[in-house]
């Protein structure tokens, strides 16, 4: 089973500002099939709370900050994101929750699959069962 990873994206900074890049199969280990973003999150709200059977994703805080909480069935890891050039790589079969959104936070997500509700695991007990089958 792959492990979650904090990825440093290239950053070109000069007096005009900064520029960062993501190239599929260069900075991330998958082909990008979909891009979505989460924004206008009211204070205290929690997003996610699900896992994916196949999808991998990279989550970047393009603006503001938030915590990506990843559960492997036994323990939890918290990745606090607040830089536009750092992303969390979320492998398949991790229960992921995003919380502690700052105001104006923008969570940018690059996904390895098209949207498919059948790829979602929305029940934590079912997630644990599937996870145990893959151990
Ligand atoms: P949801 O998975 O609940 O978002 P989060 O992971 O932040 O909890 O998605 C919210 C709604 O958006 C839900 O009705 C499904 C829909 N949606 C799509 O139609 N296509 C997509 O690519 C995504 C990510 C969500």
UniProtKB/TrEMBL annotation:
It comes from the Bacteria. InterPro entries: QdtA_cupin_dom, RmlC-like_jellyroll, RmlC_Cupin_sf. SUPFAM superfamilies: RmlC-like cupins. Pfam families: FdtA (PF05523). Residues 4-131 form the Sugar 3,4-ketoisomerase QdtA cupin domain. This is WxcM-like domain-containing protein.
